[in-house]
Design brief:
The structure is a homodimer.
Chain A: E1 3-8, H1 16-31, E2 35-40, H2 44-57, H3 64-88, E3 93-96, E4 103-105, E5 114-117, H4 120-127, E6 131-135, E7 138-140, E8 146-148, H5 153-164, E9 169-174, E10 195-197, H6 198-206, H7 214-223, E11 227-231, E12 242-245, E13 255-273, H8 276-288, E14 293-300, E15 306-314, H9 318-326, E16 336-350, H10 357-369, E17 376-380, E18 383-389, H11 393-403
Parallel strand pairs in A: 1-2, 1-9, 2-6, 3-6, 9-11, 10-12
Antiparallel strand pairs in A: 4-5, 7-8, 11-12, 13-15, 13-16, 14-15, 16-18, 17-18
Helix pairs in contact in A: 1-3, 2-3, 5-7, 6-7, 10-11
Amino acid sequence: MTRLVMKFGGTSSADPSRLEACAALIAERQKEGASIAVVVSAPAGMTDRLERDVGTADPDGQWVDEGDAVLAAGEQINAALLAMALRRLGLRARSYTGWQVGMLTDGAHGAAKIQSIETKALTQTIDGGTIAVVAGFQGLGPDGRITTLGRGGSDLSAVALAAALQAQACEIYTDVEGVYSADPRMVPTAKPIARLSYEELLEMASQGTKVMQSRSVELAMAKNVTLRILSSFEGTVPQGGTTIGTNAALERATVCAISYSRDETRIMVHRLPAGSEALTRVFAVLAEAGIQVDLIVQSPGNHVNESTLVFSLRRGDAQQALSLLTDPCHKLALDEVSLDPDMAKVSVIGIGLRSQTRMAHTMFETLCAHDIAIGAVATSETRISALIPAVDVEMAVRALHQAFGLDQART
Amino acid sequence: MTRLVMKFGGTSSADPSRLEACAALIAERQKEGASIAVVVSAPAGMTDRLERDVGTADPDGQWVDEGDAVLAAGEQINAALLAMALRRLGLRARSYTGWQVGMLTDGAHGAAKIQSIETKALTQTIDGGTIAVVAGFQGLGPDGRITTLGRGGSDLSAVALAAALQAQACEIYTDVEGVYSADPRMVPTAKPIARLSYEELLEMASQGTKVMQSRSVELAMAKNVTLRILSSFEGTVPQGGTTIGTNAALERATVCAISYSRDETRIMVHRLPAGSEALTRVFAVLAEAGIQVDLIVQSPGNHVNESTLVFSLRRGDAQQALSLLTDPCHKLALDEVSLDPDMAKVSVIGIGLRSQTRMAHTMFETLCAHDIAIGAVATSETRISALIPAVDVEMAVRALHQAFGLDQART
């Protein structure tokens, strides 16, 4: 039996007419012969309202257990409304809450991890031709209480369900046509990417492209669930979209997308004593405070036994990092620490980039040709990132999108 | 261990400040030493919103199973919000949905009957000093789905819980100070009744006084649960209110209240063949159609072997009743059926009234003194009702309230 999980987000299912559009897409897919389980988020407006209610009742966020009971209600409501929309089309459908579908979690309220899903009854239901509409974002803790899965929780429910049902794919319906080769608001020629590997999508997400939360992609990768990102706003099941699976790179050029993040601050530490001891202390202090550091470059200073350390971090963490590093009690003996808050990061994403020096060359050449100063560089298996002035980010993304041939139509 | 169930309706818990007022009342009661379980309705505005959503998704009301999943969410949300309000006061509290509290029903969606409640864990919780806040109106069907209990369902949850917990009392907090001796908008001297028997409250409810749904009172009577109707709008646990239990009548005068209903239509059947056959056929036809008949009077007609039949019924049923009775296929041979839609019913409520001919006399005398025509009369153990012109109802209620001494202050 071919099984399919279809997930609809809060924008895709925001009101009765949007729910009807979702139902029509589901009906189309069912005609193709698959057993179907659907996962829904709460409608966007309701989530806002419930979050406001919780914020009023629990301003310090202490009582996440009760907050979970409030927030999970939104998905419960929407699942039932979508089941009714499906029945209006003459289909058999029924809704399930997290506890009804046996979505068992570790009980960590507000950020629970899924432990297991009872699929026996559910499999019978969907293989018998009834569409199961499952409330996303929620599960049941070991103490019998409702737990929510945190941000991106409905995607996670969908991926976990697809894995448990051994579904052919997990389709994530959203308000865009797929994962784009660059932000389409910035690059008019940007196109949905046909195929991506999990690693590439994870790298894009970590470099600022907003698609899915990393934890859902990681779960899909671990369980080998094929993901499809599709638009629910085309009135019919879209032909395009982005498919995410293993070995996607074999089928296309190496560079798949340009990502960017404006949320970067650069810290420069001048005259740091050379050698690994001082460097280790710097990052130990930051790590203890839970501050994540991204790009790191150490270069020789003006004197022997001195070096210059440059690293980037999220803007929100910058002031705390500065205070930590200049605090005398840390004995860092840092003569001069400076901070530049107006930085951005631009990244070229693709599998096997580290071994492709040609790619790095193309990147630097392109940025130089546009007079964009490169503040620091980092590479990984799947990306080359450069720290640049925030003011140049649009120009950089457009230029790189063109330089790597992403402007051309692709299959 | 003394246990107490406190129930708050949708008006009493409509918004954050009202929830805080509820929490303060609960805190006061807990200080007195009782183990406390609370039952909440959904906030009034949310119920309206969810009912609108369900009406849009399921205009024909066919899919009550999914409607139940939507509607039950309102109580779930409010229970969690109230638990948080209690915690803000430094109290221990946690919320329970219907399925979490083991409120098992017969599975009849939209109008489920409670079958049993698992009280073991709940008893431990509340006897340990934690306040349990239970979502009213809902339970779990045999198939593991959410079922709602229908109108007045939260009262029913509260009474059932009080019975299962062997609670000392079930306190129903509402927006009035108790059960009044007459509608206070109509009779300015009307007062809350200190004590009532179940039978009297049931009779008042059936005669138009809006307090609690009869099914909740009936359950309380069957399980011998003491009810207290109290206002949640006094800022502190009210001293007054109405207590409903057995043998309440021993402690006060016989007549306790005047009820009325404006929703009455009188049907007169002239020249009905005398004897029980024709009469039986009339009521068989109406009963088959599910039409409830209230007051019935049969009197001799102008000719021997003929009689005049007068009965009253709810206005909404009148046209259907008329069509049924005049339909030739029923062979009722009814020469003349007439309908008077502008009737009202006024009732004197109290235990043991049937044997108190003095009471009936006082009633007729009072109505006559005010030139109010009596269309029909009926008595039961606990009431004397008269059908009167709708235009006279206010005058009748005020006059009877005074005539039966209900204007005086009572303990």
